[in-house]
Amino acid sequence: MRVHVSVCNSVLGCLVKNGKFDSSFKLYDEMIREGLSPDPFTYSTLLSGCMKLKQGYTKAMGLINEMKSRGLQMDSVIYGTLLAICASHNYCEEAEVYFQKMKDEGHSPNLFHYSSLLNAYSENADYGKAEMLMKDLRNSGLTPNKVMLTTLLKVYSKGGIFEKAKELLTELEASGFAQDEMPYCILIDGLVKGGKIQGAKMLFNEMKDKGVKSDGYAFSIMISALHRGGHHQESKQLAKEFEDQNASYDLVMLNASLRTYCSTNDMESVMRMLKKMDELNISPDNITFNTLIRYFCNAKVYHLAYKTIEDMHAKGHQLNEELCCYVMVQLGKAGFPSEAFSVYNMLRYSKRTVRKSLHEKALGILVSAELLKDAYIVVKDNAEMISPSSLERFARSFMVSGNINLINDVMKALNRSGWRISQDIFGRAIQRYIRKPDKKHLLLCLLDWMTGQGYSVDSSSRNLLLRNAQLFGPKQLVAEILSKQQTASRSRTIGQRHNN
């Protein structure tokens, strides 16, 4: 490889063909380091890979500049690839500039060049420029092929020029270029997006009457359009028609059928679509999962919705926060708080920022279900995003029945959030400790911590502690701690008055 540029070019071609774009550019860098001089074929190969890169246009410009710096000239192949890159990244004006520059340099455009520029026009539905380009093509002695006429059909359809689109479809039929469903799909899709569902239905029925074989694309467009338009029974009937006539499905068609069966509450057909998905080894996507979750929610089978969310998360799909939050709340109401907490955690750790209200809703579910250890986890990490009233409710519940060994940790977490702990909460904690003299060290630690944080007990708790002081070691120990609290409290009061 280090000896011949032609060998490197062959390897580059294999890498680009197999989608190994990063590896192809690494090999190019290695060529430069080894002292090999890339030729036009090297750059043409690398440029063809730029069509599928997210920042492909920027990468292509870097390669063109490097090529020019080496004294290499642009040829018609490189211009063609550059036009295709512009079209695939919606750089229409730049495509026009390169097309004209190519002609100015004496390169005669072929059908591929015209097709690439026409593709650029199709992105913005610029039918005026598209028609001028087709006129220029015919004047140059070239005859448009099926690809170009189909692209022009897309331009008309996206631009809402439906009469011209229908005329062009007739031309395609006469030329034998409409033997598959794609030209019909382009126009049907344009009519649907233009709000002309009846026109789309008529064209779809014409297509079927002419015996044009559908692989499901036309059916999926119409099923989805009827579903969105509220024609659920028509949509379902069309889904069943396709199902009766076809054994093969792709994910798009499966999702379209699944949506319409869900909207008509046809559980049997829903299950049949899921079985078909398994049989054909088709992996569900976000649309599949969210369709099922909504369906199970509407059917009020929230446990199935939860299982679907769990499966969706396990397969690495991005969860719909609003939908999952609804499921979480319904699981809580239906008596499945652990599952609700699981949904909360899936959202929380899904590598994105969730809305603040999610934490408070999860906390409410857990406190109501007395899952206070889990509730503490929510509070510990998100207390500043939870309302004072919800924190108060949690704190009261925890002091009464939460894990006694975590009471002091809960106090510290609440204090760190900036929430001022009420004397009622401290009172509940003290009553809890007094009932468990074996936890005396935790009570003494709490009282010491309160002093350091500027808290003091109220008279009721103070009297309770003094009456039970003997349970916690030397009687004067508790008295001394309470005395320190009172002294610190007086000092703060005096300081506040002085400042005022």
From TrEMBL:
Alphabetically ordered keywords of this record = Repeat, Transit peptide
The protein's superkingdom reads Eukaryota
Q: Which residues form a coiled coil?
A: none
PPR repeats: which residues?
4-38, 39-74, 75-109, 110-144, 145-179, 180-214, 250-284, 285-319
The record's section on InterPro entries has:
PPR_rpt, TPR-like_helical_dom_sf
Quote any Pfam family the record assigns. Answer: PPR_3
Hey, what's the signal peptide range on this chain?
none
Similarity section: Belongs to the PPR family. P subfamily.
Report the protein name in the record: Pentatricopeptide repeat-containing protein
